[in-house]
Amino acid sequence: MVTIVLKIILCSGILLGLYHLFLAKEKTFTFNRYYLISALLFSLCIPFATIETKEAVEEIPSTVFVESIEKPVETQIVTPEENFDYTKALLIGYCIVSGILIFKIGYSIIKIKKLKGRKIKYQNRTVFLLKQDFAPFSFWNTIYLSETYFKDFKIEDSVFRHEEIHVKQKHSLDILFVEVLKAVFWINPLIWFYKKAMVNNHEFLADESVISQNKNIKKYQELILQEILKQQNLPLIHQFNFNNTKKRFIMMNNKNSKFANAKKYLAIPAFAALAVLFAERVYAKDDVEQKSNSKIAASSKNQSTTHSEAYRQFVKIIEKYNQIVKDQDYEKFSKEVPRDEQIQLADFYLKFNSKDIIETQVHVTYAEINREIPTSSQLNKFIDTKYNISLDGKVVENKVLKNYKNTDFYSVYILKVIPTNPDYGKYEYGVVLYTNSYAKKYNAAKNIRIGFKASDEELEFLQLRKDTITPKTTIDVKLVEIKDTYSDINSTSVRIVGGGTVEAGSTAVEGVAADLVPAEYPGGINELRKKVSKNFNSVIFGETNGLVRSTITFVVDKNGSIRDLKAEGENEKFNNEVLRVAKEANENVTWKPATKDGEPVAYRYNLPIAMQFTAYNKTQ
C-alpha cells in the first residue's frame, strides 16, 4: 500500500510539474482544464493497472544446486504475537480525518444554501440576490450577488458574463471533484496545488469570455480591483474577485507562444511514459515454460499404443543402470547416474505418452515451483493475522509482507485451515509464498525427482485393501514415494503401485551440515509411508480423474513431537484426506528428534503427496 501511495503522489507531482512548465502560461484554457482533471484521475488509477511483460531470465550454470524446501529449523519458528495493531489504528485515524474533510464539504454547501436573499430569473439564469454586501460568486447553477448589483433591473454585463461562464461550463463540478479527492486522498498534499491550478484556470476561462465581448480590458481590471475587499471564505464557490489578481491581469494581456498547440500534444507521450513507469508489471510465462506445459498437456492426451522415441532414448540410458533400478536404490541413482544424464532423462520423460508412463520402471521428473503471482489486493489481505504466512519455506510474521510488492513473488498457494488442522482457530488460512529469486534459483537448478515401480508384494498389499462393496467402476491407484536428487545429496523416493500415483516422502534437506542427523519416525520413513497408504480412503474420490497433488508440511520439535501439520494443494477434499491420514499416522507417536552437534534441534519436513486417479469399468 505504501508503494501505491508513493506512486500516486509521484505521478501526480510529475504531471503537475509538466503543467506548470509547459501549459500554465499558455492561453489553452479549455485544454488545461481537462488536462488537470485527467492528470488527477490518471495518477490515482495507473498504480492499479498492470502491464504484462516478459521476465528477464538470468543464465545460471547447470552445476548450481539450491536447497530443497524441507529444512532443519534451529530456532523457534516465529508465531505472530498478539501485539497492538498499528495498521488498524492508522486506518481508523485516516478515516477520521477523511470524515472531517467530507463534513466540511457538506457544511460549506449548507452555508451557501442558508444565505438570505431572493431568487430571480435573469437572462435565463438563476440569480440569487443577497441581502449582505458580498462579492459576486457562483455555485452549481446559481449566480450569487448582492442586491446592490441589481440596479434598474439590470446587472453589470461584465459581472454577469463572468459568473455565467462558471455556471455554463460547470466549473463547480471540478471544484467538488477535487474537494472530494482532498477528503479521501488527503495524504497526497499535491491535491491542494491541483485545486489552486484549477481555480486559476476557471478564472482565466471566465475572463477570456468577458474580454472577447468587452474589449476594454482596463475597465474590466478596475472592476475586479473594486471587489477585492469583499471576498468570502466559501471554498466551493467561484468568486468574482480572486486573490491571485496579478496573475489574472498578466494573462489578460498575454498571447500564446508559437508552440502552444505543439505543447498540448506533448501530453500524449507524457501519459504513455508514466503509464509504463508506474503501472504494475506482471511477468508473462516465458516460452520455455509454455512449451513445457504444452508438452505435458499433449502427453496426457496422447493415447498412443506404441512407445515414443523419447521413451526409447530414455531406456538406452536407464539400461546402463539396470542393477540400481532393480535394487530400487535411490542413493546410488542420485550419486552414480551423472547429473547430465539425469537431466536428459527428465527431458525425455516430459515427452512420454500414456503408454510410456505406465510401463516405465523408473520415473525421472523435475521438481519445480509453479508460477502463480499474487495480486496487490491479496498481498494487502495477507497482512491480517488470520493468515499464517510461509515465506520461502519459513513461517514469518504478517507485517513482513509490507516490505514487498506483489510482483516480488513467483508463487502463492492459499489454503483454508480445516477443523482437523492443529492451527484451526488460530488462523483461517495458510499462505505459502515464494519470492522470484528463491523460485528462480530453485527451478533453474533443475532439481531431479525420481521414482521406482512398486514390487509385487506391495501390489498384493493394495489388492487386500479393496473395498468390500464392489462398485461398477473402481479407482486404480498407484502409491508413489518421492525422491528429489540434488548433486550428491540424498532425498526421498518415489514408489509406484498399480495404475495411479500417490507421492509420499520428504525432499532433500536444505543446507544440511555434515553433523546434522535428521529426525526419524519410529520404524523409519517406510513405516510412516505404510501407515499413510493403509489409512488413505481412495473410495471417496470415485468421480475424480487425473493427477491430484498436495504437500504435507510439519515440524518435528526438539522433543520429537509434531506441530504445524498442514496440507497444501488445489483440491480441498484431497487436502483434508491426506491431512487426516498424516494426523492418524502421528497419533501417540514420538519421533527421534533431529540433532546437530549432538544437540536436538527442530526439523521441518515436506511430504509431497500425489494421486493419479483413473476410472475404468470393472470386469467380473
TrEMBL record:
Residues 139-251 form the Peptidase M56 domain. The chain crosses the membrane at residues 6-22, 34-51, 89-110. InterPro entries: Beta-lactam_resp_regulator, Peptidase_M56. Keywords: Membrane, Transmembrane, Transmembrane helix. Coiled coil: none annotated. Gene3D superfamilies: 3.30.1150.10. CDD domains: M56_BlaR1_MecR1_like. Pfam families: Peptidase_M56 (PF05569). The keyword Endoplasmic reticulum does not apply. It comes from the Bacteria. PANTHER family: POSSIBLE SENSOR-TRANSDUCER PROTEIN BLAR, SLR0241 PROTEIN. This is M56 family metallopeptidase.
